[in-house]
Amino acid sequence: MIIILRPDCGKPQIKALEDWLHRQGLHTQLTVGDSGIVLGVIGDASGVSAESLLAMDGVRGVHRVQEAHKLASRRARPQPTVVEVGAARIGGGRFCLIAGPCSVESAEQMRSVAESVREAGADMLRGGVFKPRTSPYAFQGLGAEGAELLAQAGRHAALPTVTEITDVSQLETLRQADMLQVGARNMQNFELLKALGRQKKPVLLKRGAGATLQELLMSAEYILSGGNGQVVLCERGIRTHETATRATLDLSAVPVLRELTHLPVIVDPSHAAGASRLVEPLALAAVAAGADGLMIEVHGDPAHALSDGAQALTPEAFARLASKVRALRECLEKTEAER
Predict the structure, then answer these.
(1) pLDDT tens per residue, range 62-114
(2) Sign (positive/negative) of CA torsion 244, 246, 250, 254?
(3) Domain count for the chain
């Protein structure tokens, strides 16, 4: 249920309404935006009549949300959410370019990559320190040491950082990261999602390899219902019968999700492609599809990377891609303005 409050509704009126709803066994989440004040009601509100709410001071309208993803629904928040990660902004017309290596390997590697992607126009620095790998014998990441190296590189380049969290126990280790990523394997790790919902740190939620868009939105709902509204969705390819690429990048997810939710949607073409030569065309297609950002793997020496080197761009290739992304976005914005 969504309750629309009058623009002049004061804090005492809002508190009285929230207290009444809490006594009915419901939870609430207040959103103040450009289009007004909205109170989201979480729980079984079937016993609460719209007439009773409309009679309360400060209430302008009541809407029952049919979607299961009530808080993630665009009906709950008509205006797009803009997620703030340090100086970076994602959503609401603000495009974010995230770049960096699959894995943090050394201080020198991270400093060099951070400098190069910043100069090319990246808004955020990525780097994995806890690496869930298919093989138990593959490189698993540097853990706490890697977290510190990522934080140092981010400070050096003045870029906010994002890294993957795989378990609730890692929250303290990753406290310096500006954004936490939930990987495809953990999209339905509900205890982890609940824990991230209790945090104030922005979350990048990747779509599972076999997940529907509805399942992705329901995973986002776990985080939102915990009180953390800073969630970014990420399409990174799904598993199909096709074997020419590592995964099938579902670009149709971008416009569909933009219809269904107010949350920003970015695309990771690197993991879907599995090959560096495919990253650029997939990235440009994602921009054309309306993505709010891109997440690109960049490594100074892909041939000797400890993980996923085949899909990583060199700094030079990333700089060329970033330039094309800017040119394409300018063209699209100009075309839209001329309509």
Answers:
(1) 877 767 788 898 877 778 999 999 999 999 999 999 999 999 999 999 999 99
(2) negative
(3) 2
SS3 90: strand
Measured CA to CA, the distance from residue 99 to residue 104 in angstroms comes to 12
Q: Report the percentage of the chain scoring pLDDT > 70.
A: 98
Whether residue 316 contacts residue 296, with contact meaning beta carbons closer than 8 Å, is answered with no
CB-hemisphere CA count at 13 Å for 303?
Answer: 0
Whether residues 266 and 296 fall in one domain: yes
Are 186 and 289 in the same domain?
Answer: yes
Query: d(Cα 230, Cα 263) in Å, to the nearest integer?
Result: 8
**Res. 33 pLDDT band, cuts 50 70 90:** low
Q: What is the CA radius of gyration of the chain?
A: 21
Structural domain harbouring 39: 2-63
Both 52 and 150 in one domain: the answer is: no
| CA 333/CA 324 separation, integer angstroms | 14
